[in-house]
């Protein structure tokens, strides 16, 4: 929030429905985040998991299960192109996890970035499919759309079996 407040142009701040996981509330002023910079949370092998938004707990569980690199994208626009391209070149497959639409979402932007730079690799996207989502409690909605750690791990196992060069 501090970053958006101090940014000289328009800024959008997304927050999840219900209780959000993220920064702790404090009386102390928080530091600003450099606009467009992602945060590398964990280094791993072969598989790159990219989190977008409040599914960081689920993304962390997925990355730990596979011994994967975990990147918290933080910003969809602008993308941290330099880091994404570097990480893509050092991994065999990418998993994107977001609580927004897959079509036209962050995963699609990453696909476009990689293709524009001649990088073609297996990519699996998790997010909301292209239809209106149902309403309900956050945990129910995540389960319905396969956005729990357990469901994603199962789908990624299947994905990696289909693409042996990615594991």
Automatic annotation (TrEMBL):
Cofactor: Mg(2+)
CC terms in the record's Gene Ontology section: cytosol
Keyword terms of this UniProt record: Isoprene biosynthesis, Magnesium, Metal-binding, Thiamine biosynthesis, Thiamine pyrophosphate, Transferase
One GO process term, biological-process aspect: isopentenyl diphosphate biosynthetic process, methylerythritol 4-phosphate pathway
Isomerase recorded as keyword: no
EC code: 2.2.1.7
Subunit structure comment from the entry: Homodimer.
Protein name: 1-deoxy-D-xylulose-5-phosphate synthase
UniProt source species: Tsukamurella sputi
Lineage of the organism: Bacteria, Bacillati, Actinomycetota, Actinomycetes, Mycobacteriales
């Amino acid at each position: 929030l501090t970053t958006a407040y101090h940014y000289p142009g328009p800024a959008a701040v997304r927050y999840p429905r219900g209780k959000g996981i993220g920064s702790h509330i404090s009386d102390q002023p928080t530091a600003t985040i450099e606009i467009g910079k992602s945060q590398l949370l964990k280094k791993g092998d072969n598989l790159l998991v990219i989190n977008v938004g409040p599914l960081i707990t689920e993304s962390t569980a997925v990355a730990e299960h596979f011994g994967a690199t975990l990147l918290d994208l933080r910003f969809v626009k602008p993308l941290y192109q330099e880091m994404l391209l570097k990480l893509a070149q050092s991994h065999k497959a990418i998993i994107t996890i977001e609580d927004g639409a897959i079509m036209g979402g962050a995963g699609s932007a990453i696909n476009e970035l990689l293709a524009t730079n001649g990088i073609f690799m297996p990519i699996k996207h998790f997010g909301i499919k292209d239809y209106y989502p149902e309403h309900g409690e956050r945990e129910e909605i995540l389960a319905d759309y396969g956005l729990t750690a357990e469901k994603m791990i199962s789908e990624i196992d299947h994905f990696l079996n289909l693409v042996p060069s990615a594991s």
